[in-house]
Amino acid sequence: MNELYELTPYLVLAISALASTVAVYLAIIEKDLIKAVLYSAIQSTFYALIFYLLMVPDIVLVYIPVSVGLLPAIIIVTIKKTERYEDVAGIPKSSSITILSLVVAFTFIAGYLLVLSHAITLDVFPSADARALAKWFLNTTLWWNRMFSAMSPEAVTAIVWDYRGLDTYFETSVMYLAIIGALALARYFEIPKKEYREEVMGMSIIGKTATRIVVPMILVVAISIALHGHLTPGGGFQGGVTAAVTVSLLIFIFSTYFAIRFFKINTAILLRIAGLIGIALSAVITAIIAFSTGQQAYIFQNQPKVIAQLGLPYEVGGNLISGTLFLFNVFEFLAVFMGFAILFLLLSIPEEIIREVIRGEME
Fold it and tell me: HSE-up of 161 (CA within 13 Å, CB side)?
């Protein structure tokens, strides 16, 4: 029984991987794009389960709102502005069944061999000795010796913004460049100034009332996720993505003209820039202090090191802030929140305006 209990997570992983593969296949061959989006969301749900079984709750917190919520919403809006059904012949039915059968068979065989190899101890999975470095990080993220610690009980945040902060900075830059590209493509589009009329715009009064109740709650939870990201699973990106759901709700439930009362594209751009500047300053603040005082420090340095004994306070008034980790989460929250708000507002521009601009460029 103990052996079966130990194998259960691997069996669930294999089944989830199989189900996600089938969902991807169905999304590819489906001619109804709305159904294809649904299959994609199902695949993302299974992926979230896989990440949970792999014990990465921070990734799960991001993956669920982004891949199950925000991404399908963006694609559905895009479909609404184009066509719902594909007008291509696609894959013949007989070929589709054959391909699906091969995918299912291959996944089952691979999963069976994976579980079997572990059961007979062929050392396919990393041994305990190979994880010594991981154990060191997990055991020292909050430690008595600040020179070898990030002074945070949340290991993922410590690794993301301290131990490998430079990688995270460039990952943030990728999203920043994507937002710039979207703004460049939509530089001639503008949401028209139109009065919002409650009785004729948006969904029913039930949906609007529920949204008015839910939106403040979502924002409170999002801010909590960001501010406690150095203490519990979460962080600035997760909180920003969660907060961005409120923008999509206002657009879908009320209307674009209601949403722009609270979120304007130009204001969102300025706030996003402020968030990115805050991230950049947080990365070099220790180095700036060291340079001004004649000491030595590194970029992305959080706590004191052996040969660079300058660091930011890890607590204020007895409350743990983990030095730069708190600052990174706050500014990342602002940048991500406003970045997704910009994308949603751009996607909500009425179709007739986009067609008019495109028609004018073609002429």
Answer: 32
Q: Tell me the chain's radius of gyration from C-alpha atoms.
A: 24
> What local confidence, expressed as pLDDT, does residue 110 receive?
56
- Distance between terminal CA atoms of the chain? 73
Between CA 342 and CA 248 the distance in angstroms is: 11
Q: Which residues of the chain have a pLDDT value below 50? A: 90, 121-126, 130
Please say whether the dihedral angle defined by the alpha carbons of residues 325, 326, 329 and 335, taken in this order, is positive or negative: negative
- Kindly report the backbone phi and psi dihedral angles of residue 86, in degrees, each rounded to the nearest multiple of 5, phi listed first: -75, 145
Measure CA 145 to chain center: 33
In DSSP terms, which residues pair with 319 in a beta bridge?
A: 316
Going by C-alpha positions, the residue among 22, 23, 29 that lies closest to residue 92 is 29
- Determine the length of the chain: 363
CA atoms within 13 Å, Cβ hemisphere of 353? 13
Q: What is the pTM of this model?
A: 0.69
Could you tell me the residue ranges of all domains in the chain? 1-125, 129-363
CA-CA distance, 164 to 158, in Å (whole number)?
9
Closest by CA position to 339, among listed 270, 257, 279: 270
